Amino acid sequence: MKLQNQINNLPHLKKNRKTLRKNLTPAEASLWRILKSKQLDRKFRRQFSVGNYILDFYCHSEKLAVELDGAHHFTKEGIADDKVRDEFLKSQGIIVLRIENKKVFDNTSQVIDLIKSYFKNI
Questions:
Q1: CATH code for the structural domain at 11-117
Q2: Structure confidence by residue, pLDDT tens digits, 92-114
Q3: Which residues lie closer than 8 Å to 113 by C-beta, 6 or more apart?
Q4: Average pLDDT value over all residues in the chain
């Protein structure tokens, strides 16, 4: 039975989530290989939606969204859009961690350590 107030993985976003999962950016694919192997002892989902937003990666146990940001996110419009998105997610009790795409390739271990630093109990 579906709840009337469901906000996660809304049916109208299913096709978009599936398309995004099949077409990961190189940075998303690289980080996903690590996250899905459970090296961090947490379960992450990719392309999980909350409200009308599709998150790159989401850890339910930590209420942590990991967003990998490309060039668009550093434009005036991108920054404004991300602010609205992040405020909505914060209102849902979700912490948003934004990481620049190139950092995934330049220093993967630092990215992993950064993600772990957001865990409540290590």
A1: 3.40.960.10
A2: 999 999 999 999 999 999 999 99
A3: none
A4: 89
DSSP three-state, residue 21: helix
The SS3 assignment for 104 reads: helix
Q: Which residues have a Cβ under 8 Å from the Cβ of 107 and sit 6 or more positions away?
A: none
Question: DSSP 3-state assignment of 100?
Answer: strand
**Are the CB atoms for 121 and 44 separated by under 8 Å?**
no
**Dist. CA 48–CA 9, nearest whole Å:** 6
Global pTM exceeds 0.85: yes
Within a 10 A sphere around the Cβ of 115, how many other Cβ atoms?
A: 22
Between the CA of residue 5 and those of 48, 59, 63, 89, what are the distances in Å?
17, 21, 18, 16
Q: Specify the amino acid at residue 118.
A: Y
Domain ranges of the chain: 11-117
Question: Could you give the CA distance from residue 121 to residue 114 in angstroms, rounded to a whole number?
Answer: 14
